[in-house]
Amino acid sequence: MATITKTQSKSGTAAKKSTSKNAMPESKFQKLFNEELKDIYWAEKNLVKALGKMAKAATSEELVNAITEHQEQTKGHVERLEQVFEMLGQAPRAKKCEAMEGLIAEGQEVVEDTEEDTAVRDAGIIICSQKIEHYEIAAYGSLRTLAHVMGNDDVAAVLEQTLNEEKEADSLLTQIAESSINEEASAE
Asked: What segments bear the compositional bias annotation Low complexity (predicted)?
């Protein structure tokens, strides 16, 4: 694994130096970062499939479009995470994300427990989708901050791109819910 560390050159200025895993053992902080990176990688890869199922279960065209667009965006998130692994000199590896597995299962349960073609189902899908977005916002925000602390500003910038997209997706879901779905669901 390549890590970026700050070292002092003979002139006293800070320079970035790349070291290999064999030359310097991974710190506990770096290990935490790497484990969380593997966790969100698993989450995003599994979310791609789950979003397809949620889009098929949704009724509102606006909601279907939002989920479908975010599914495509999520494929890009997977690619960005693979870029981050590459930037760190690591092969992309996933570690089962128990939290995302639970959130996906909860979304499937909502679909199974609600009637087809109803605003109530759409409202439930939005709730579950926003729980997922909030988890991702927390994960990407934390990873971005850890990357900054480690001096990996390039990695932090890549993670921030995804963080911003997750925030936008959450905001869009709120707009959709508030525009009509919640009112329609309460009348059913």
From this structure: 1-21
